[in-house]
Amino acid sequence: LVADRISLDGDRVLIAEGSVEVLYEDAKLTASRITYDREAETLAIEGPILLSENGGESIVLANAAELDATLERGILRSARVVIDRQLQIAAAEIARVSGRYSRLSRVAASSCEVCEGGPPLWEIRAREVLRDETERQLYFTGAQFRVMDVPIAYFPRLRLPDPTLDRATGVLVPGFRTRTQLGTGIRVPYFIRMGDHADLTFTPYVSGRTTTLEARYRQTLRGGALLFEGAVSRDDIVPDDTRAYLFAEGRFDLPRDFELTFDLELLTDRSYLFDYGYSDKDRLDSGIYINRTRDDQLFFAGITSFRTLRASEVPTAREIPNELLTFDIR
Hints:
single chain; mainly beta; twelve-stranded antiparallel β-sheet; 1 helix
């Protein structure tokens, strides 16, 4: 504890005033006045209070607090939490338990900049929020989603990942898409974390003229990586037919510095990618390749299969070579 002035009241109470700083492990607290009771091991703190943890990853501001000497248990009043400089949570009171949980009462949360002249673009107001700092999750109770201070939706229970968590299973931010042939629709991605090295994302896309399911699978391997992307649709553009595409690519390390790569591009009809805006490619190319690059040597071998999507080339596609074999060594 560091302060401009420190005094003792008897043999058990220490009073620090003026530019007070309390340091404990990776936590730092600043305040205007702190009273420390040695027997009870408690801090009575007067604000303005700033509590920074994990190198500034989490910042708590409050008007007053009562905490233990480890800064892990206690009550903060009229507080605001800033997580990873992205999400702000204002609460009437924050109760800290064992350094892992924080229970926030009468909450307003938003990632938008809060201006004094008006409400944020969006916010979530809730009766209570439980923050699990170990699992990095936020659990809302009685949550109300607002846009420009207008209630839009109510959720009795709502879970959101802490902004410091890179990957977590759950619904991603929905989005709207407008296409001339499909009209205006909504996409709601759902992300599934499959361990530390793989994930799967399903995205239903619905408009007045289509029902589509998009998907993406990613995986990193000990010596390589895989990526699959695709979609399946039923729409009014090609009635009574199922339309789909699949793109895949991969890379694998082989012995003696060789590398194997492949890409696969499949499509049910040549206008599907353009109709949905998935790609502007006018030719598909699938292939498998082996290469090795050294300081004094280059080796490359592969075979590529082409398929044209150009309307002008479709009638003469049989006259155009579809497979290309490449071999190069230097």
